[in-house]
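Journal club side-thread
Mid-discussion, someone asked how the predicted structure for our own chain would compare to the paper's figures. Pasting it here so we can look after the session.
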Amino acid sequence: MDTNQPTTPPVYVRSATLGVFGTKIPSTIAFAIGILLFFLPFIDIKCNNMSLQQVSGFQLATGFKVNNKSSDNPFLNDVKTDKVDETITKTTTKSDKRDPNIYAMIALGLGVLGLLLSFVKAKAASGGAMLTGIASAVALIGLMVDIKKKVKMDVPSAGKSDDDVLGLNKLGQQMSDNINIRVEFTPWFYIAIIAFLAAAVFCYMRMRNKQPT
């Protein structure tokens, strides 16, 4: 028996237990869903239980206009004070452009980058996509914290703050003191966070494969 025969190199076989989750398909779909959700409402600006305006994630990332038309807000018809009526008259046809939110921009940009990386077969690309998925979710959480902070700063001083990110000051000028303006995050926003986190998990599972596809 010849003991000097060369040994056969080990053959790396894709783990059968991962199945489709070890391919690029799940992460690509998850990233695509997270990006598409940006075109749906992320926040809902409300007065008491009445919705004033819904803003999509894409609008948060690129800037949006605050609609102050009283004709679009039926609840304003119930406000009887002279001061409010005068303010409504002055702002009936006026709208203001809000600046893009840096956290929304980062989340959207990283989501697009993660989608592109998910198409690449290299293992390093899968690792990069995993990091971008986590970073996108963290940026969205930062967006939520930032908006809640700005709302807390803007609403109590309606009409007086120079940093009126969501236009709540101008909306507040139209309301009486007993009306509560708030911003709620829609289910689409939370699903987007889950989608990016899921994409990161799928990228990790793909990295576990010896032979990424």
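Post-session note: The CA atoms of residues 93 and 100 lie 23 Å apart.
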